[in-house]
Amino acid sequence: MKHSTTHLLGALLLPLLAAAQNSTTPSNTTSTEGLLSSESVDLGDWADAYSKAAALVAQMTNSEKITLITGGSIESVNWTALEFKDATQGPQGYEYVTGWSESSAMVTTWDRQLWYNQFKAVGLEFYGKGIQVANAPTSQPLGRTPWGGRLVETLGQDSYLNGIAFGLGTQAFTDAGIVASGKHFLLNEQETNRQSAGGVGGSSNSSSSIAPYSSNVDDKALHETYLWPFYDGVKGGMGGVMCAMTKVNGTLSCETPSLLQKLLKTELGFPGLVLPDVDGQSTAFGSANGGLDFGSSSIWSNTTLLEGINNGSLSQARLDDMAMRNVIGYYKVNLDNGTQPAFVDSSAHVDVRGNHSAIVRENGAASLVLLKNTNGALPLKAPLSMALFGSHAGPIMAGPNTVFSVSGVPDTYSGHLAGGSGSGQTSFPYLITPQQALTNRAASDGTMIRWILNNTYGATTSSTMGGGGGGIALLSGGTALTQTIPDYATGAEVCIAFINAYSGEGADRTELRNTEQDAMVTSVASECNNTVVVVNTVGARILDTWIENENVTAVVYGGLLGQESGNALMDVLYGDVNPSGRLAYTIAKNESDYNVGICETAVCNFTEGNYIDYKYFDKYNFTPRYEFGFGLSYTTFNYSDLSASITNSSALASTYPTGGLSVGGKTDLWDEVVSVSVAVANNGTVDGHEVSQLYVQYPDAADQPLRQLRGFERTLLASGESAQVTFSLRRRDLSMWDVQAQDWAVVSGDYVFSAELARGN
Ligand SMILES: *[C@@H]1O[C@H](CO)[C@@H](O)[C@H](O)[C@H]1NC(C)=O
Ligand SMILES: *[C@@H]1O[C@H](CO)[C@@H](O)[C@H](O)[C@H]1NC(C)=O
Ligand SMILES: *[C@@H]1O[C@H](CO)[C@@H](O)[C@H](O)[C@H]1NC(C)=O
Ligand SMILES: *[C@@H]1O[C@H](CO)[C@@H](O)[C@H](O)[C@H]1NC(C)=O
Ligand SMILES: *[C@@H]1O[C@H](CO)[C@@H](O)[C@H](O)[C@H]1NC(C)=O
Ligand SMILES: *[C@@H]1O[C@H](CO)[C@@H](O)[C@H](O)[C@H]1NC(C)=O
Ligand SMILES: *[C@@H]1O[C@H](CO)[C@@H](O)[C@H](O)[C@H]1NC(C)=O
Ligand SMILES: *[C@@H]1O[C@H](CO)[C@@H](O)[C@H](O)[C@H]1NC(C)=O
Ligand SMILES: *[C@@H]1O[C@H](CO)[C@@H](O)[C@H](O)[C@H]1NC(C)=O
Ligand SMILES: *[C@@H]1O[C@H](CO)[C@@H](O)[C@H](O)[C@H]1NC(C)=O
Ligand SMILES: *[C@@H]1O[C@H](CO)[C@@H](O)[C@H](O)[C@H]1NC(C)=O
Ligand SMILES: *[C@@H]1O[C@H](CO)[C@@H](O)[C@H](O)[C@H]1NC(C)=O
Known about the structure:
By secondary structure, the protein is of the alpha/beta class. The protein has 16 helices and 26 strands.
């Protein structure tokens, strides 16, 4: 590895005992493929739910089954239609719910327990409102292109990290008693041209005749990059999957049997229902035979489907299967146990928030990534004077709940940004801004605090300014300063510039940096030798316009943090929380360093294969500004004594998995086979969490990226304390997709394990 930014510690060669034998029976495509009743998949702990679902469906006529799969209630069997609602930030559009952070923020904590806590609490809010199915969590878009407008809603650009979070999300929702309906399946990587003309969610650029675009990806990258997290989701208990509104290999995703019947329902053993994203369904039998289980009553009318059963266009077995899949998730999460409160509409005063604000604040602070910290700039220690800059520091004029938009939003937001848009929209009961939190802190610390809550207000000094509210030398002396950004910056012990980047469903980003905001930062830094920059962004935000400016002493970088945003930022700025967030994607020096932009053609060939984000930067030796996994602390850590051992050699005795198909794929894909441990010491002066990361280099024969994340642990270490951190690797973590064999193979050879200090120096 050529990165100057990468330390490899204790690299170790580990020869695996992978089998001599290389034989497999390719899976058979039959008409019963993907049917629950085919018994090709061992349902495991779904078996009871299967029996209950079968008993219910057995009492239904075909016409009632059609009612069921089109979202109707069926009085004769006492079945009430399920309520489905967006999204990962809690019940969307509801009052008396928590204003949660976005998934792309939460994921940068790299902490399984914090992820679980948040997902569980989100799930309980759905449960408490009487909603049965959450259209969440959202694994993908995965992030083939950093311009993707919807990455704010998703779980980072690395399939392993994304998958662990996605699996915990489905497990936590299940534990909360609701059905997790994960999305989007699959390869819906950008907003541009996602939907044909006239679609509800179509952006101004999506009315083209080439929409929806078709994503074409080779089978290897399909499995190793995009399908990967869905294994975790299914294993975690996911009862629903939302298929995407786009196409794969020229056919709508929701009507593609190779995607839904073969990959999802057979290879992954998914037992639940597939429901379509907007406009995902276009034909009755294409969708029914393609694997869609829930659809529109105008396409799946009684007449059409009953006639189809008669003339052989649809099998009775498939109709029964669709009905089963619509109810099995309900039983799996015990929604039949009579405990769930009644469904209420969005304005009912049913307060489901509990103590959840504490989780929003804790996770927000834990998610923040300290990118730069020089001259001991942070943490702040009761500074005598402080000046805040930028519209992102304070409230937007009309409050935080923006109009729901599925047609795109501007690239920046004129107020404190703490939630996304479209399906990523947060419902805020309140929003603590940084200006509010820091003002309270200043009041108790005796700090003199000033602010200009605008990026351009008096951007230049008074001598060159005209009107426009800036540069009017109307007061002088006392506490009044000339109202310009440079004048407010001059003499402040610390200046904090706040910037953001906005995007959401329906349109992609048009920029990864912003001229107006960058000019503001430079303007502040021109007069303030202690300029701290706070960035809250929907995705990668290029910082190179000013990152090397010596007066920019610190950068705190994070996602959109929800209702406690200002408090979470304050916790880190003042050191009440020692930052431990780590980037879940790469921040490049230049836009042109990223290999994939927005696709403008009808067919989008994913020619980069597995090589997105750090895997691409590694392969072509691009030095990023801040690499995937990067993040500083107020303390320092020291690594030693890496060791690896095979913990289950019999599980590695064959090239291909030998276990039966179960929910989550072949059972032995999940067996722990290797354990890696490393000693980590906090050798600095303050307590802090360290996120230890394990990267694996496969043998060349596996044709894998140079290194891949295959383990991580967040550990609290007191100053002077050390601990043994252990990473447990499953068989799948050392497997590659063998296209010929159509199976996950462990290739014999040397595997190199490294626990990195991603510290950028
Ligand atoms: C494969 O399909 C054929 C029919 O197309 C069937 O005869 C055979 O039994 C199937 N094999 C397996 C292993 O399911
Ligand atoms: C119908 O289901 C509801 C719960 O959904 C239950 O309270 C009620 O007792 C059931 N009625 C009958 C007749 O089974
Ligand atoms: C019903 O299921 C929910 C969700 O799993 C659980 O919290 C509750 O305790 C259950 N109620 C009973 C009576 O078992
Ligand atoms: C639409 O796409 C074209 C390129 O195909 C681009 O130049 C234009 O800026 C886009 N418009 C919007 C509103 O996104
Ligand atoms: C799409 O086509 C490619 C190339 O033929 C193939 O490798 C891939 O498996 C196909 N994808 C699906 C979902 O069928
Ligand atoms: C099918 O017919 C039943 C009555 O026979 C009716 O209640 C239901 O609405 C119909 N469903 C659809 C999708 O047309
Ligand atoms: C910021 O200030 C400029 C004048 O310098 C004004 O034109 C603009 O509307 C202000 N922006 C906001 C969001 O208030
Ligand atoms: C920063 O500027 C202040 C005066 O505003 C000065 O006292 C201080 O020494 C400077 N710090 C550095 C590191 O240059
Ligand atoms: C840094 O700040 C000082 C004032 O403290 C200023 O004189 C100097 O020009 C600034 N440097 C840059 C690169 O803006
Ligand atoms: C996508 O790949 C196919 C098959 O290689 C090729 O025919 C087609 O021209 C490509 N399309 C684009 C837009 O690159
Ligand atoms: C802590 O360990 C790191 C990594 O080995 C090292 O660079 C640093 O100098 C150490 N700090 C102290 C105070 O020993
Ligand atoms: C298995 O054998 C096939 C055909 O000889 C070969 O292409 C493939 O790479 C082998 N797989 C492994 C994991 O060795």
